[in-house]
Each structure stands twice: as C-alpha cells, then as structure tokens.
Amino acid sequence: MSNTPIPFLDLVTPHVELQAELTAVFQKAITTGGFIGGPMVTGFEEAFAKYCDAKHCVGVGSGTDALRFAFMAGGIGAGDIIVTVPHTFIATTEAISQCGARPVFVDIEEKTCTMDVAKLQAFLETKCEYQAESRQLIHTATGERVAGIVPVHIYGQMADMDPIMELAERFNLMVVEDACQAHGATYFSKRDNRWRTAGSMGHAGAFSFYPGKNLGACGEAGATVTNDDKLAAGMKMIRDHGQKQKYYHSIEGYNGRLDAIQAGILGVKLEKMPEWTKQRQDAAARYETLLADSGARLPQVAEGRTAVWHLYVVRVADRDGLMKALGAVGIGTGIHYPIPLHLQEAYKGMGYQEGDFPVTERVAREIVSLPMFPQLRAEQQERVAVEVKKFVLAGAAPAAAAAN
C-alpha cells in the first residue's frame, strides 16, 4: 500500500484539469474590462438560481454577506433575535450580529447534526409569547422580537425543513437557510409533495463559494437565492452601496458585490457540479462500506434527504489520538468544529455555560473529518480505513452511542 500523503482536501487537481477554461475567464475579463458586474455575473446568477430551483440569485462577496444582506433586506435589525444552532462556523452568528440582531441557540439532533426541531419548537412555545394583533413573537425574558430562524445544512445535508417552515409560518418568522455547505443537497418536502433543493425552501438561502466548498471560487465569493422579488431587489441594493442606479442611493448599503472573474470561474465549475457531487456520493458510500466494522461512528443521512458530502465526519472517543495517528502516516484530517459557538471566547458575554447544549458539546468532542473531495481515489480511502480501524480497534472506545 502506498505511503504517499493523502490530503484532507485537494484544491490543485480540479483547477489543473480546468486550467484552460479558467484561464479563458481571466482573458475575457482583461480584454473586455468587465471586472465588476456585467454578463459573467448575471450569467452565473441565472445559472445558479436554476441549479437551486430558485427564482433569483444575488451574487455577493462572501457567504457571510449572503446571510447578512438577506437579514437586512428582510427587515431584521437592532432589537431582534434570530434562532440558530451552536454547531456551525462563526460566520452564521457574525452575520446575525452584524445586521444588529442577536443570536439565540437551540441544540442539534444527534443523527444529522442539524437543528433539533423539537428543541426549536420548545423554545418558541415556552420561552416566547406570540402577539396575534401585531403578529410578533416576543422573547419573554428580554422583550425582544424573535424575527427569524437560521437552520444550518451542515456537512452537506439539509435540516428538517418542513416542520421548520411550519413553525415559521405559525409565528411569522423569516427563515434563511445557511446552505454554505450544501450546494445541491435535496429534501423531499411532504408539504409540497416533491423534492426541494437547498436554499429554495426558506425565504432565502445563503451560499459560500470559499475555495474549499463543493462549489468554490478562486478567492472569496457568495450568493443568496430567493423566490421573493422584493427580497432580491433589496439585497441587490444593499450589496451595491444602496443604489438602484449609479450615484442615486436610496439607502446606505455595503460594498459586497461578486466580482466578474470569480463569477466566471464559478460558472465554469457549476457545469462540473453534477459529476463532482456524484463522485463525492460514491466516495461516501465507499467509506460506509470500508468503515462499517471500524468501531467509529459513521455519519447518517436522514430519510427523505440526499447529502452532497461537503465533509465526511466520523465520531470516536479519542478524536485527538486518531488525528495524531492519521497525521503520522500522512493522512490529512480536520475538525468541524472543535468548540461550539456558545462556548467561544467571542460569545462569553451571552451567558451560556457548558452543559447548555449537551448534544452539540458531545459531538464537538468526538468529531473528525476524513479526506473528502471528488478526486479521492478508492485506494486512498482503503488506506484511510485501514488506519482508522488500526487505531480505534486497538483499544480506543467508540463514540458515545446516544443516537436516536
């Protein structure tokens, strides 16, 4: 078996394979002077909206902008609360804080690591009071308006959107899907009696095109998709200094545009997404077979959902030991994410304590992300599996078996 290092993520091979097409994008930009806006941006927006089965796509500078501008365009701001999960990257809550609102957490479910709908419902029903006349949900402890919900489609699998949307309609809440890891993931909606694509079910869906994402730019980029004409128009103004036309500013906005070269690169890569997603799904299926008797706890996909496997995350009791053992033989790994947001130094002022979200805290201690990318070869996965088994079965206890 080869001892060649296995990277956690390969950002070189796909760009080498697409070098001619990607270079053509740059050549087009420098020969036309089309660097901001223009046909490459609108072309990608139209194509990505179609890919997500949404009416509009608004290209922006990052996934954080995609979330923040959606909240702002939806009228969320100072004095408002948005409910999300503590098991996510900090950009989710940065976007909430930066629009003036305050994040409040509910725990995740064990099986999928996505928002626990029962915990969300309990929070909305027991910690808040709905005022029918104003159609506002008020947080009883602070008097603040609960304005929105952000389910996070973590690791490439969608949260349980049907009941989330039912709760949102019941309490008049805005739903912005954090789909930054879920490009192309799907969910069978019993409400709609059809498959729905990530980003298309909420009032808006936010995507990151950070280079390591399933659809990644060669730099920073993001987009928001929506079926709401007014919301799309608002986001387009916000991303461009609040102007509908040059130098006529209706509001004070931001410089959060998607530049043309990144849009062109994303357009090239978008055509490869069906193939790349199938390769990720095949790799996940191989891992499931290879690691079935490894002693590690494997990720699960809920019924009625398809995952796009942005990450392949297993759980073991001695996560740090496993990472060290894999690193010693040249196998790259990651942790997504080691410290839940409610325990981060940045949020110590929120008043949360260890034990407040037990599922999130348990998951954070045990998770390790194994190599996952479209070009991952079967023989590389076989080597990963051998090393995982060698470590876990040598005496390390498996992850806590608390799954439902």
Question: What do these coordinates show?
Answer:
This protein has 404 residues and is of the alpha/beta class. The protein folds into two domains: 13-270, Aspartate Aminotransferase, domain 2, CATH 3.40.640.10; 273-392, Aspartate Aminotransferase, domain 1 (Alpha-Beta Complex). Helices cover 36% and strands 16% of the residues. The chain is built from 13 helices and 16 strands. It has helices at residues 13-17, 19-32, 39-51, 63-73, 91-98, 117-126, 161-171, 229-239, 260-270, 273-290, 319-328, 358-366, 378-392, and strands at residues 56-60, 80-84, 102-105, 128-131, 136-139, 145-149, 174-178, 186-189, 194-197, 204-208, 222-226, 243-245, 248-249, 305-306, 312-315, 367-370. The strands form four sheets. Strands 1, 2, 3, 4, 5, 6, 7, 10 and 11 form a nine-stranded mixed beta sheet that branches. The chain has a three-stranded antiparallel beta sheet with strand order 9-8-14, with no helix packed on it. Strand 2, helix 5 and strand 3 (102-105) form a beta-alpha-beta unit. Helix 4 runs parallel beside helix 5 (91-98) and helix 11 (319-328) packs across helix 13. The protein is globular, with a radius of gyration of 21 Å. The relative contact order is 0.17. The model has no long low-confidence stretch (mean pLDDT 96).
List keywords for this structure.
Aspartate Aminotransferase, domain 1, 16 strands, 404 residues, alpha/beta, Aspartate Aminotransferase, domain 2, 2 domains, 3-stranded antiparallel sheet, 13 helices, 36% helix, globular
